[in-house]
Design brief:
Layout (H helix, E strand, L loop, with lengths): L12 H8 L10 H8 L4 H29 L1 H5 L13 H4 L4 H25 L5 H15 L13 H21 L4 H24 L1 H7 L4 H4 L2 H25 L6 H4 L1 H16 L3 H28 L1
Length: 307
């Protein structure tokens, strides 16, 4: 049974659809800049892939909102008692869209995304089987993340966020070059860590709502101290990956030094979230850390090309 709508909204339907698709959160889409800096030869394929990933992610977040509305968790996390969350960001909770409208929007975006990715594969100079399989699996998982099989309700949320981000770098790079690169894999995982770090801070803030509906995020399954250790380990692991890549020769020796500013931002983010206990400001700082990471990864590829 659908949860009762809390409040009504005066926004236009178009603006509400933009909110449902979270078009203002573009950080997943930045991965295409990393690919373009490493393999810029096929702009048409890159554009088709980018448009496809926008549609797929829009579908996924819309389905997530539909499920959060149905199970009541968004009513808790974005309800009138939460001063840190704007209810209008959830059109179903705010009453600016109906559930039927949201479903049509989500399925339309899903179909469009699948068609655009198929077009990207068709126009690519290479189509190694691993890239095609990876895209099919990620497409299916994105649509089942909170809807259908509800993978995020079965303990796969944190893993999926990293895998999705990494795929958005690995797959288009494979389609353009026909190759698998260890250095690009490192960059892909570092890119995927950005959305994961948004997620773990959001989950820390939303722990009561997630526990109420049985959504098993790490924050919901552990104590506050246990969750803080988990987030701290992720923050440190991001830097260690860059360090190991430099030490092993997968990445240039200077790569770890180039990525040091991201480690500094992660330390500040952790302090803000778990020492100052301002989780939402810490989450916001995560966007700065992720965008800094993307800029540095693009710079790394430019430096490699320049020799």
């Amino acid at each position: 049974m659908s949860a009762e709508v809390v409040g009504t909204g005066s926004e236009s339907r178009f603006r509400s659809y933009l909110r449902l698709g979270k078009f203002d959160v573009y950080d997943y889409y930045l991965g295409i800049l990393i690919v373009a800096s490493a393999a810029p030869q096929e702009p048409a394929t890159l554009l088709l892939f980018l448009l496809g990933e926008v549609a797929v992610i829009v579908a996924g977040v819309a389905f997530d909102d539909i499920t959060g509305f149905r199970d009541g968790s968004d009513l808790v996390n974005y309800g009138p008692d939460d001063r840190l969350r704007k209810k209008l960001r959830k059109p179903l909770v705010a009453g600016t869209l109906t559930e039927a409208e949201a479903l049509r929007f989500a399925w339309g975006a899903a179909v469009l995304g699948a068609l655009l990715w198929a077009a990207a594969i068709a126009t690519a100079p290479h189509s190694p089987m691993w890239t095609v399989v990876l895209l099919v699996v990620v497409l299916a998982a994105a649509l089942q993340y909170s809807y259908g099989l509800k993978l995020s309700y079965r303990g796969f949320q944190e893993v999926f966020l990293v895998v999705l981000g990494a795929t958005l770098v690995l797959a288009p790079h494979g389609l353009i070059t026909g190759q698998f690169s260890g250095f690009v894999l490192v960059q892909a995982v570092l890119f995927g860590m950005g959305p994961l770090m948004f997620g773990v801070y959001s989950n820390t803030n939303d722990v009561d709502g997630d526990r109420a509906v049985g959504r098993p995020t790490v924050a919901a399954l552990t104590s506050r101290r246990g969750n803080a250790r988990f987030v701290g380990a992720l923050s440190a692991g991001e830097f260690l990956l860059a360090a190991l890549a430099s030490l092993s020769g997968i990445a240039p020796w200077w790569f770890v030094l180039l990525m040091a500013p991201v480690a500094v931002l992660r330390a500040q983010q952790f302090h803000l979230g778990f020492a100052v206990c301002d989780i939402m400001r810490a989450r916001k700082l995560g966007f700065t850390a992720h965008r800094t990471c993307v800029a540095l990864l693009v710079l790394a590829n430019v430096l490699v090309v320049l020799g």
